[in-house]
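Worked example

This section walks through a single chain of length 275. The input is the sequence exactly as stored; nothing has been trimmed or padded.
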Amino acid sequence: MPMHSPSEPRPPFYGRTALPALALVLVLGGCASGPQDNLSLVPAQLDQQTSREGLFTQPVKWSRTRPGCQGECPKLTVDSLAFPGHPRLTGLIDHALAAMTWVDAQSAAPYDTLDSFEAYYWKTAESRDEVQLSARTRYRNERLTVVELDAGQYRTGMAHGMAGSQLLNWDNTAEKALTIDNLLAPGARPAFDAALRAEHARWLDQHADAIDNRDNFNRMWPFAPSDNVGLTDLGVLVKYQPYEIAPYAWGQPELLIPYDRLRDILRPQFLPPKS
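Given that input, the structure is written out below as tokens.
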């Protein structure tokens, strides 16, 4: 959602936020290997059925301006989630959202939680600064929780805002984050990228702007592999940042690779049982 001040419209968010910091968070959230058994973590049921068996969530939602500020003031909005009884997941989401606000790849953030980020933000924010942070579940069942994290920022004086998102796959039993290397079978990354490229081509076939001049579109917006993946009941979702593979007007593109195209690519425990 675009950010604005009462007196003057602000530019919408676009561009990319610094996501490598979150990638490090996910690595720290769990060990390097996936589950050791062959039990499928993606049941055959549809999301409407499995989500009722997923982890209970509570909203963490608030919006604040800098304390004591009068007139035009910096603003911070959080629309996140807590998972009662699962402090590691709750803490990881809190930590990851804070990490997504830091855009200096050359140095570490001087905060590691939303509380410490808020304290830093009020000390450093200028009058028209605005930050929006959110987390929502994209898929959940008894064994997996997939959360989408979003961060949008506008800083006073910038030509435009920045936005970014990240998908977090959480193993409920092992209580750890799963990176793409945990999900893919050994040596299967080239095959996964090929499946993603094929889905990207099918996706472009649905857009007139790309069909009219495919060569020019591919030159301007070439295919790019991505580690930003999330498990769902239908397949693996891959989400891109604005401007990553398409113009800003296309938003944050999402590609879905069905599970039947990922046999022998995903580890068996991340495939639904064969019917």
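What to look for: Confidence is low (pLDDT under 50) at residues 1-18, 31-36.
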